[in-house]
Amino acid sequence: MIPQRDFTWALVAVFALSAGCEIETDTRGPAVEPTTQFDVVEATIPEMQRAMGEGRLTSRELVQQYLTRIALYENLLNATITVNPNALAEAERLDAERATGRVRGPLHGIPIALKDIIHTTDMPTTGGALAFEGLVPPYEATLTENLRAAGAVLIAKTVLTELANWVAGDPYDMADNYSSLGGYGFNPYDPRRDPRSGIGDGSPVLSPGGSSSGIGTSANLWAANVGTETSGSIIWPSNQNMLVGIKPTVGRVSRYGIIPITADQDTAGPMARTVTDAAILLGALESATPDPNDTATGRCERPSGGDYTVYLDAGSLNGARIGIPRAGFIESEVLAGDVGPRGGIDVARVELMNEAIGVLRREGAIIVDPANLPSVIDNDPARNFLNWPICAGSGDTRGNDMHCSIVFKYGMQRDFNAWLESLGSAAPVNSLTALRDWNRDNASLGTIKYEQARIDISADVDLAADRERYETDRAKDIELAATRGIDAAITEHDLDALLFPMNRGSNVAARPGYPSIIVPFGFAPNDADPPFPDGFAAAPSPFGVTFAGTACSEPRLISLAYAFEQATRRRVPPSRTP
């Protein structure tokens, strides 16, 4: 299925592949004669703006180059769920504005993609769900309006894990970036299907991360994209695609017009190839004033003019105090009462993490190692963060969920139903329960390939009867993740930030709605269990490091991430697509 696309684009891709071409995702220019000498591959937003300002490039030419790349690589990567049929017309309109001397800002004429849970009225917003195929919402997301006002060209909607990965759950976990409507997305660093016997369901050999997608940004199909995160869904795909991802403080970016899981933790944020590009995009996403449609906004002070680039200081690591939470994140932690081990990473990734710490020291940072979170090393399992998961599987039904937090499943029914109500007559179903039933009734269409355990347990929540339990669990989440977690470690050691490997700190930062920024750093083996067949050479998996802090600390985190990026410059673009 190629929804909302000019079919000739797909034909270009089919022709290139069927002709036996060796396709490389760092190819310098499209297969057709370019209209400009400007090369979009790995180009930064400031470079694009400079070229347009000097008259060497137009937004239309920029969009055309990206559309050509989408055509060349879409059949291989499946990065888009919808391409905007009006993208060239939008670019021409913005070029006309520039010709009159009006430049809206650093995103003027820049192609940006959106995760397909973010409302647009010129493209469908489906969440990847068959039940919402073709849904055009009656209003745009606040961040969509902000991007349009900033002059961005919204070129496409990205693939995603269906409904932000709140459909399937244990024992049938859904593959990252799989949806019943869009199929599987593939990682550009190894865009092949898993060859192992018994796993031949079409899933990728190298996870692209999820639930947001970084596939298209990494493969240079657009300049940057907007993802959303409830717990790891910006940081994890950014890690897997060698991107910079900023998961903002909850409330810094309005969630109005975004399909929710829970307002307690949901946020949108930028995914880009550089810290600079991510900082520019974050400034455009954040509203100048609190959004009356999202009561969480206004929590943090916005930089003057929304300009986060003022914090891009290559020397900011000098004297910065960075804490390393080893227990439970780098090294596994064994809890009392035979509970454990929990957490930790493999030897190859530990070596990369230690190398990253060495870079910080070289740049003048003061390293506190370890700077363990008190709630992670607590010997009482009832007070230990690692022993307090999110209720997310078929065994976590109402009455069988005392071992886990019900915040997600409670919030999903509360907030998803409110979102459906906001659609009015456009809503294909009127409740989460109705969606569950529709999926069951249409299972023959492939609605629930991995079942729908998370929808099941959320639909069975009683919002009135379970409210006290929800409030208790929400308070425990904050206590373990913030009060006795991140806040305690940062206060005890007087830290500027904590450093985590990959997405390992996402869950602890997400529960209180704290910000995180990941920066690419290297590669580690893609070791599978069970192993790949003899003779199958799996490409290595990207590896990044994440800076995390307390609420509203994005300016400091951006400065540290930028300094680390400039000291390392470890992003490597995808080089080959077999």
List keywords for this structure.
alpha/beta, Amidase signature (AS) enzymes, single chain, 578 residues, 11-stranded mixed sheet
Describe the biggest sheet? 11 strands, mixed
The computed structural class is: alpha/beta
- On the 0-100 scale, what is the average pLDDT? 93
CATH topology: Amidase signature (AS) enzymes
CATH H level: which superfamily? Amidase signature (AS) domain
Shape: globular
Low-pLDDT segments, ≥5 res: 1-36
What does this structure look like?
The chain has 578 residues and is an alpha/beta fold. The chain has a single domain (93-578), classed as Amidase signature (AS) enzymes. 31% of the residues lie in helices and 12% in strands. It is built from 16 helices and 15 strands. It has helices at 7-18, 45-53, 59-77, 87-99, 142-149, 162-165, 215-218, 235-240, 275-285, 347-362, 407-422, 432-441, 453-459, 467-493, 506-510, 554-568; strands spanning 80-83, 111-115, 153-158, 178-179, 183-184, 224-229, 244-247, 267-272, 321-323, 333-335, 339-342, 366-368, 497-501, 516-524, 541-548. An eleven-stranded mixed beta sheet has the order 1-3-2-6-8-7-14-15-13-9-12, with helices on both faces. Strands 4-5 form a two-stranded antiparallel sheet.
SSE arrangement:
Layout: H1 7-18, H2 45-53, H3 59-77, E1 80-83, H4 87-99, E2 111-115, H5 142-149, E3 153-158, H6 162-165, E4 178-179, E5 183-184, H7 215-218, E6 224-229, H8 235-240, E7 244-247, E8 267-272, H9 275-285, E9 321-323, E10 333-335, E11 339-342, H10 347-362, E12 366-368, H11 407-422, H12 432-441, H13 453-459, H14 467-493, E13 497-501, H15 506-510, E14 516-524, E15 541-548, H16 554-568
Parallel strand pairs: 2-3, 2-6, 9-12, 9-13
Antiparallel strand pairs: 1-3, 4-5, 6-8, 7-8, 7-14, 10-11, 13-15, 14-15
Helix pairs in contact: 1-3, 3-4, 11-13
